[in-house]
Fold:
Amino acid sequence: MKPENTFNSKESVDVGGSERIPSEMRAWEVTIPAPIDSSPSPIHFVKHPVPVPKTSEVLVRVISCGICHTDLHVAEGDLPVHHPHVIPGHEIIGRVVANGPQAGRFNLGDRIGVPWLRWTCGVCTYCRSGKENLCPNSLYTGWDHDGGYAEYVTVPEGFAYRIPSAFNSVTAAPLLCAGIIGYHAFRRANVPAGGRLGLYGFGGSAHLAAQIAIAQGIEVHVFTRGKDAQRFALELGAASAQGVYDPSPVSLDSSILFAPVGDIVPKALENLAAGGTLALAGIHLTDVPSLNYQNHLFHEKVLTSVESNTRRDGEEFLTLADRLKIHPKTTEYPFEKADEALRHLSHGDMQGACVLRISEG
Ligand SMILES: [Zn+2]
Ligand SMILES: [Zn+2]
Structure:
């Protein structure tokens, strides 16, 4: 069934007397995936028609959009193209400016968050057993569907989140993927109460997971290449911070690998105590070298990956982030400099997360 439009996208229209929606918007699109430093750049600043919300979707005017490592994987081609000329970005904060047919969860003007998980089927075995993150029919923002490096985006209303008022629209952006998926990884890592958790890599996701863990009395040890990132980890309350391949000062109950580097896996497994769990948090990982059964896996060590998140993870994380007063560290970039921000991310050694500022609240 072809969804009906709520308004004529050819013309600018008035929404509830509040905001006029233009017919065209500025956006960044991935042209031909290639290394981010190559010339011409794999992403281009272009004009696009403003999308039209379909059944049960809302149209959102984007205020800010966080920059995630996954955007880099999409731009560079580590993740295969799902939608040619896709607009990346899936840590979106914005205001609802139009409702599609049968959409009514939000009022016009509400501030909402648009995350990575755009849609799941609701009927497969995984969806029906509380594991919609494993739904084989799932769709993702900024990969299967245009994302938030744009002035407007649509989202199925059931997959958006209300954003706690304690967070401003720039600091809230990284909560939407870095935060939620970091939280799902934290749950997958199965840290015992008061236990010791290792974090490998210390970017947008890890610095939020660290705060959630420390606030719950867990001892956090950070392994990251950048000296600035190591200092930042200690400032946030980590018990230790060292290089990625340095020996761990203590035996760890659980670890999360955030860096997309398979070479770290054997080292991280060696640092685990008997019965410990290593969770691999990335959607993409370079090849894992061969493992030695005695050194890396025996003593009931558990090695698991982490795929996306459920909406329940999202709601739980946003509630916890508000209650535990989590502080996302952000560096703001103007909308026109998304390419520069992606290059900055690819070179590493940054504190927290980069966020594009796209419009005023
Ligand atoms: Zn992401
Ligand atoms: Zn499903």
In short: The longest strand covers residues 57-67. The chain is about 20% helix and 25% strand.
